[in-house]
Amino acid sequence: MTVIVNKHIFQPLAAVTLASASTLAQAVPFEGSMLEEIVITASRSQQRIFDSPASLSVIDRELLDRSTAYTLGEILRDIPGLQVTDSGQAGSQRIRLRGEESRRSAILVNSQEITDHFEVGTPLSLDPSMVERVEVIRGSGSVLYGSKALSGVVNFLTRKGGTEPLQATVSGSYDTATEGYTGFASVYGNLDGFEYRLAYSNSDHDDRQTPQGEVENTSFDNSNAYLYAGKSFGDSLFEYIYEDYESSSHIFVEEEVKTTFPLTDFYLETPKRDRERHSMFFSREIDEDWLQSVKLNGFYQETDRLFYTRTELVWYQRDIHSDSKLETTGALLQLDSDRFEGHHVIVGLQYLDDSVDQSRHVDTLSWTPPIATTGVEVIKDKASIETWALFVQDEWSITDRTTLTAGLRQYRVDPDLEETNRESLTAGSLDDDDELIAALGLVYDYSDGVRLRANFSQGYVYPSLMQLATGAYAGSRYVNPAAELDPETSDNYELGLRLQSGGLVLDTAVFYSDSRDYIHHLPCTTEDACPGRRDRLYQNVGKSRAHGIETFLQYVIADTALMPYASLTWLKRRNEYADFSTWDSGVPDFSGRIGVRWQGPLFTLPQLWTDIYVRGETSSEVTEPGSSRTVVESRSSWNTLNLAAGLEFGGQQQYQLGLELRNLTDESYVASGENLYGRERSASVKLSMDF
After folding, report:
1. Is the pLDDT of residue 10 over 90?
2. Residues 6+ apart with CB under 8 A from 394
3. How high is the pLDDT of residue 425?
4. How confident is the model over 501-540, as pLDDT tens digits?
């Protein structure tokens, strides 16, 4: 569907909406609390946010339905401690938690990991309309969720069946900043206990319009097919989920990067980044003395990636076509027991196998033969990592008011470079690793409306196949792998307070993290014996210390249903390398969102909602070792004024219309962690219909 919104109506429309929100007499009072949400990610079993020792945020179905955003990253970006990164790709966003790089965050779909072995981390390859809710853990989740959960976990739980034999949803959205659309359709239902859902989405967006003008090479498109089938047999539940995500994206490169000596031009494109996944789930409630439940799941996933690079230097031109396939097989067995009074124990055994098969066609045209040789080189590599892990967690009610949660995880990681035709590498087994990590959490029930919490957790990230075995091209340079790399590890500490009283909700945490053995690529030295004169090499070169405060606060003003709220982060992060240390780690000191929401009836309309808010952050910079520039990245402080509104209508309120007006002051900015200018003053609209 195509809906065009004229920019000139922004200000009067905003004024009418705000006036309505503040003067309606029949406002609906706020009911319930976000802290009463039941989550599964923090402990792999059902638990209220209010009672969890972890730092948690939830995006529920209502918020997902009302949002007009066309990516999950846009929906998540206001969670405290979370940054969205784009790596120059508007349609392929990634997540950073507490300032850590994206590859140190675990991305899950239905509690199963989505693996990725490239430098910039796992992209969010799922359409928002497929998602029922999102659960985010900030702070290490490595004990329960394994390698890559060093900084936290983002778990996307997809939609399943319905309540009637046949139901359907159709929606369409349009965004003026990209002249882009997203269409979605789903058929679902419940036939005598057999639940099903079949869904499909398609999205196509042109280059982004910003206050600086059109940003070239920011167009993208994607499609997402989804199938769910589930059936209960007594106390047992069998489920099958199929996902197919296909995407294509241009990649923006800053002009400064293109013209930094010796570069004269630089072009990137990802014509294909597809993910196909088959998942099976089985659970059974047993309720015997020693065992209460058994959960078993397994999956197989293929990720196909085409990547094109054209690099022009003062000495030569090089075209690189990379074609890689990542195959992942995983399985998990989990047993839950309440055998001992006051204890809830889970024991799990997890298996994961990643295999990368990659070929790169490198076409070089040189006009200075001593620097590079003209011709075509075909590089082929095949590598794998097999991981076994055994974990146990005990949730112990020490007293009526105090709960202690303790967990351990033992890793066994075995990598292998199976094939390579690169002369500088030798096929064979790489260094394996055994690691034991722990987590400890304490929750004190101070009163019915107050919880105090403290926790300690260790993080663990094993090097990727790119870092260990296959290497990567970074612009005009080749980054050589290093088989002897150590895993990245961390220690994380938190103190938190949760409070809910009347219309007031407060969830805040103070945290400190100490991370070690960071992997980074530096220019090769003579001792490294790299084959190329301008090569780089992956090395364990850094560590960091970070501390900060994350706060979510909301209050419902009695008899008005007006809800002021704030989601704020203060974060300081110091990166330390062999030769220097710096606070310039790309993380702003302050960031967040402050706004006012309202929800209630309007005249004959049974449900209307509005949300006016300011989003922003302070300035940030990035400095790194081995760079030709003193400051690799610099971002100025910024803030934007935004308005969201929507209504439900129809006899059964089966129709929903949402409108978001973004960057009303037409602020020119680039968010920290991103390469792209933010969108100009623009609008997005979404219409959904349920049948």
Report:
1. no
2. 343, 344, 345, 405, 406, 407
3. 86
4. 888 999 999 999 999 999 888 888 888 888 877 788 999 9
Is the per-residue pLDDT at 428 higher than 80? yes
**How far apart (Å, rounded) are the C-alpha atoms in residues 243 and 131?**
12
Residue 19's contacts (CB-CB under 8 Å, 6 or more residues apart) are none
- Report the distance separating Cα 642 and Cα 662, nearest Å: 5
690 is written with which tokens?
Answer: 């349920």
User: Comparing C-alpha atoms, which of 352, 434, 447, 336 is closest to residue 394?
Assistant: 336
Tell which residue, 210, 140, 128, has the closest CA to residue 674. 210
Map residue 678 onto helix, strand or coil.
coil
Confidence class of residue 26 from pLDDT cuts 50, 70 and 90?
A: very low
Per the DSSP assignment, residues forming a β-bridge with 55 are 138
Provide the strand spans (E) within 176-292. Answer: 180-191, 194-205, 208-210, 213-215, 220-233, 236-251, 263-285
Q: Taking a C-beta distance cutoff of 8 angstroms, is the pair 453, 443 a contact? A: yes
- In what helix (H) or strand (E) does residue 196 lie, and over which residues does it extend? strand 194-205
Sign of CA dihedral 372, 271, 471, 420: negative
Tell me how far the alpha carbon of residue 201 is from its chain's centroid: 20
Q: CA end-to-end span of the chain, whole Å?
A: 18
Instruction: State the Rg of the chain over Cα.
Output: 25
Per-residue burial over 412-448, b = 16 or more CB atoms within 10 Å of its CB, e = otherwise: ebebbbeebebeebeeeebeebebebebbbbbeeeee
Q: Is the pLDDT of residue 21 over 50?
A: no
Q: What is the pLDDT of residues 262-300, one digit of tens each?
A: 888 889 999 999 999 999 999 999 978 789 999 999 999
Alpha helix positions (H), 58-126: 61-66, 72-76
Tokens of 607: 């449900």
Close Cβ partners of 399 (under 8 Å, ≥ 6 residues apart): none
Q: What is the DSSP letter of 556?
A: P
Sign of the Cα pseudo-torsion (554, 611, 40, 549, in order): negative
Residue 23: its H or E element: helix 10-23
Beta-carbon contacts of residue 434 (< 8 Å; ≥ 6 apart): 410, 411, 412, 413
Which residues make Cβ contacts (< 8 Å) with residue 322, sequence separation at least 6? 305, 306, 307, 308, 309, 358, 359, 360, 473
- Residue ranges and CATH numbers for the domains of the chain are 7-690 (2.40.170.20)
